[in-house]
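Folding follows sequence. Below is one example:
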Amino acid sequence: MEDIITDIDDIFGDEKQRILRDAQVLSPDYVPEQLIGRKKEITDLAKIFKPIDFKGYPSNALLFGKSGSGKTVVVKFLLHKLIERLESKKLMDHPLRWVYIQCKKHRTEIKVLYEIIRQLDPKTKVPKTGLAPDEYYDSLWDLIKDQNISLILVLDEIDALNAGDLLYNISRAGESHQLPERHFLTTIGISNDFDYGKNLDSRTKSSMIFKDVIFEPYNAEQIKSILCDRVKLAFFKGVIANETIELCAAISARAHGDARKAIDLLRAASLYAEENGFSQVLPEHIDKALDGLDDDRLMKIVTSLPLHDKIVLLSILKNTNYNRPITNVSKITNMYYKICDMIEEKRKGRTTVSNKIGEFETMGFIKVLSVKRGRGEGGRELELSVSSRKVLEDLIYQDDELADLKDFNPAMFN
């Protein structure tokens, strides 16, 4: 029989067995009509914009929380609602715009400035590169005046910025008369590094005066409610078993309340079920999806980790190899101190390092083999639990602060 395929249903599959109805609902960019389990965080952030009601200016803000705690979706949700409210109540005599910048993609001063300009004016003739920073600032100030707008700048993963005087300059835009009269430029930074801001220079701190909003991790019940809400929109009725939702929620709650992981896991399980001809997504499909999803997700997580988390992870790598796969907490902590000294980074305490190791266990990067107690035992023994050590190393060395440690061999210093 010839290996020939021409029928369109044979190529793309028969749509009668569809499980997913709207995959967009499960994407990271989706902003739902209602947010579950984030009432306090939404209320705290909304207070920052209350001065607009009285012709005042909102404060700058920093949002802190673990991955998957809802920081980004809360900001986008609230800004949509804020603009609806301002327009319906006519609380401002000029438009308010907001732009969202992913700082992992746009790290430098010029890249951020250009991206703001591009989002405000998609047809801009300002070149992406080739100008001095002052020229990009002048173009931005002129654009704000031409459009007669106030602006909210959202900087996601703000700790990834290597942007010189960007924060200082935009914080002083009003004082330096770069904005129209009674207009404002407010910055909202998002980070999972709770220490971000402490190392900013004093003039930037003084000028920005960030207000902190802390996001607590979701619990299992909140994650379950979020999944139930998405299931109604994303899937055909009856294809997701309740036990499947509960398993997804339980797994993600253990991973420091990561709602994004729960949604990714459900999406991956549904694709597995659909590709293998099942009419329902069952708990066993979660296990199948988890095998593939965890490795991919772990690698994505690495690039967004704060610097000191990466140093701890690198310390585990430096203390293990193919001939010596097992290490312990004491050795990791000592290696962490050595690396901090090498890159002239202030050390964290032993408890902080131990807690980070515990988080890596929960997230699946490492596996604890035993707990040794007593003086000189070194504490927990552990090993790496990722499919590719080489990929993990390469991702860590993408960080400019750690790139020069690629050839560092601890054995030479023992």
About this structure: The longest helix spans residues 283-304. Residues 373-377 have pLDDT under 50 and may be disordered. Strands lie at 61-64, 96-102, 150-156, 185-191, 211-214, 326-328, 366-371, 380-384. DSSP finds 15 helices and eight strands in the chain.
